[in-house]
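User: Sequence for 2-isopropylmalate synthase below. Tokens please.
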Amino acid sequence: MSKISAIKPHGCPLQQPSPMPFERYRPFQPLKLPDRTWPDKELTKAPRWLSTDLRDGNQALIDPMTPGRKRELFDLLVRMGYKEIEIGFPAASQTEYDFVRSLIEDEDAIPDDVVISVLTQAREDLIDRTAQSLVGAKRATIHMYNAVADLFQRVVFQNTPEQTKELAKQGTQWVVSAMERHLGDTEMGYEYSPEIFSQANTDFALEVCEGVMEVWQPDADREIILNLPATVEMSTPNTYADQVEYFCRNIPNRENVCVSLHPHNDRGTAVAAAEFAQMAGADRVEGCLFGHGERTGNVDLVTLGLNLYTQGIDPKIDFSNLDEIRHTVEFCTGMPVHDRQPYSGDLVYTAFSGSHQDAIKKGLDDLQNKADEQGKTIHEIEWIAPYLPLDPHDVGRNYEAVIRVNSQSGKGGVSYLMRTDHRLDMPRRLQMEFSRVVQKYADEASHEITSEQLWEFFESEYLKMDEPLSGLDFNFRNEHGVYNITCELNFHGERKKVTGRGNGPVSAFVDVLKAVGFNVHVLDYAEHAMTSGGDAKAAAYIECEIGEGEDAKTLWGVGIHPDITTASLHALISACNRA
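Assistant: Structure tokens for 2-isopropylmalate synthase:
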């Protein structure tokens, strides 16, 4: 029986009541759906995507985008492969209206396979103005909304449920009439959003949508998009999924309805809500790149897309140059992407922890070995790596930032950078020794150690020490397997000519070192080429025990030279100077 004094379960310290007035808030009442099926479903394909960066994203900026920046962002979305793009709220202002017109009037702006979308409230004058903005477009969608949650009906609009249903139907009729008046030459789609859907009674939202469908009359050639916004995220993502599954089960004429999602991120779970709701039957997702949008933002389209990608599913969007995407969005919106933003932040492929670095290093080594066996590159084989769910190369990153060094780092990270950046594949015990050197510097500096600084530390510790001993010249003679060496050395500032002999160059030089007072016993030796071609260099690593008895020290020396034998002798000198 262990003698450890354990914390008893009933003796664990309990969280104490907070001083916050939590009782002022009501828990969300979930929909009762005991026969839900979505938890057993899997995502197997990408949804239809709509980017609302130019509308929902733009309206949430401190300084809304200029027309030039909106155009740059629109062009980026097209290049990435988005086929449905909400470009504005043309009835809201002349600036918005003019931007819509500028895209339509530029014949090269909107590809034939891209559908632009514009938003409007359920007001006849605004709907008519919205339709006018689309004249000349090849393919477009008018997106109308009105609020259906009880709180908004009572407090914001002072509407009864019947008035809310009638407004949705009447607004849809105004949309149909405006399309007929202004847009006879345009392929038109219609999207309706029961705004605040996630806080509404789901049966009431269904009634409203059924009334809208009675007016629009969807069929096989006349789709309707019913968009279900979590306008303010107020519940756990499984609750939203239940609402969506219930809606999909009960909406009539389901085969001609595109059920769309519009999650916001107020509770920080918009991505999970969107994924669960797709499992629940939704066909389409609206969001913004990097989660821009009102308050805490819309769902992040980048995270959703790359979540699919890392499960082996084509997101149907090109994220292969994620840094360019990020920089363009940052320029256009004036808002930086967070360092920890999934997939796209500066630090998301970076490990500082020593244990993480060691695992990543071993994982990358394993991948390289598998690639070599298959005659492929590491980027052509199945990706499985510790702590890296995505190969950074696939989104235009490299491995330079994967491992970075600070006081939390260990030998794995240090050795990885020394190998990848400086071509030094150090033996394991040397990795451990040098990591202690780096740790000392990192503790003193209290900040990240760069790759360049690592090289400076390594040079200072192993390569640039020339006291008390430095080698000036070495000459070998091999006589029947016995090596004789004549050396010119500088020892404590005095030039010496010393000879030695052994069964190889290293043992012969050990004999020389003994003659000048260093008792050296070689414990381990490793070497490798650093570069090839005319300026080829080699590295030699020698672990030595120097001295005798209790005064003996075990340490490493390193030598770098175009000639591998000379590199080995320099490694012995390095070890002696460190003793």
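The radius of gyration is 34 Å.
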